[in-house]
Amino acid sequence: MEPAGALTPNEYISHHLVNLHFGEGFWTWHVDTLIVSGLVGIVVFGLMAWVAHRATPGVPGKLQAFVELVTGMVDQQVRDTFHGDSKLVTPLAITVFVWVFCMNAIDLIPVDFIAGLMHLSGVEHFKAVPTTDPNATFAMSLSVFALIIIFNVRFKGVGGLTHEMFAAPFGLWLAPVNFALRIIEEVAKPISLALRLFGNMFAGEVLFILMVLLAGIWSHDAITSSTVSMLGHVLLSLGWAIFHILIITLQAFIFMMLTIVYMAMASESH
Fold it and tell me: CA of 182: how far to CAs of 162, 177, 186, in Å?
């Protein structure tokens, strides 16, 4: 990444919002999103698997206790919300919560740190937070949407699902209205799930970028670095980062809870 002093404010903001990509048009691959999300998944779930392999029935260590606390919390949410017969929902909910939370948590790393390291290796653009990329959030929400369809067919059957789509909630005499409302309801689920996570995380990322500009010492149209500006950046970012911990946790929890609720709705009759 170019030094801040070589960029105008608009250029600095734009620079941080461009993905490292490959290809053009519809077949564009956001390589940074794929790399970071994959590495986060490998490291976090690899660590959880290692803890599970070394788990002891006696007094657990701190790491084991923490993993048990997280998995137990998610399992309790599933028990309270999902009443169908499926062994998939709890592992799915744990995966969603832990993975989304850890990807969100990358936003707490200073804005220029990872981008600066990648610049040293010759990479011009690199967005480190996968959940600030709508491609990642839509990929997760569409995966949940596919499971919603599978659960509907599994628990209700093709005939039962078809009857529900045309008969609920107003009866067969308003079948076209029922069907239109059901299509809108189903399509809205992955869209709202993806955009809620993306919108909150993208806004947080932009705020961190703006704090760099706010703490900077201005010289004509460029931003220059100094001890004062760095100190201001640290103080501003620290305050927002403390509050942002709540946001990244809440967004992971909401994504998980909506996934459980959608699975529960798909497994129950109208």
Answer: 11, 9, 6
CA gap 59, 138 in Å, rounded: 41
Q: What's the CA gap between 142 and 217, in Å, rounded?
A: 44
The pTM (predicted TM-score) of the whole model is: 0.88
**CA proximity to 254, closest of 195, 185, 197:** 197
Which range marks the domain in which residue 114 is found?
Answer: 4-267
Cα 60 from chain centroid (whole Å): 30
Kindly state the tokens that stand for 34: 């794929």
Q: Total domain count for the chain? A: 1
What is the rounded distance in angstroms from the CA atom of residue 221 to the CA atom of residue 12? 11
Burial of 130 (0-12, 13-18, 19+ CB in 10 A): buried
> How far is residue 97's CA from residue 185's CA, in Å, rounded to a whole number?
24
Taking only the tens of pLDDT, the chain with its 270 residues reads: 444 445 677 778 888 889 998 988 778 899 999 999 999 999 999 999 999 999 988 888 899 999 999 999 999 999 999 988 889 999 999 999 999 999 999 998 888 788 888 888 888 889 999 999 999 999 999 999 999 999 999 999 999 999 999 998 888 889 999 999 999 999 999 999 999 999 999 999 898 888 877 766 433 344 444 455 556 556 667 777 788 899 999 999 999 999 999 999 999 876
Which amino acid, one-letter code, is at 107?
D
| Ordered DSSP codes for 37-87 | HHHHHHHHHHHHHHHHHT--SSS--HHHHHHHHHHHHHHHHHHHH--SS-S
Catalytic residues: 192, 196, 200
Which residue, 253, 39, 24, 259, is CA-closest to 151?
259
3-class DSSP state for residue 135? helix
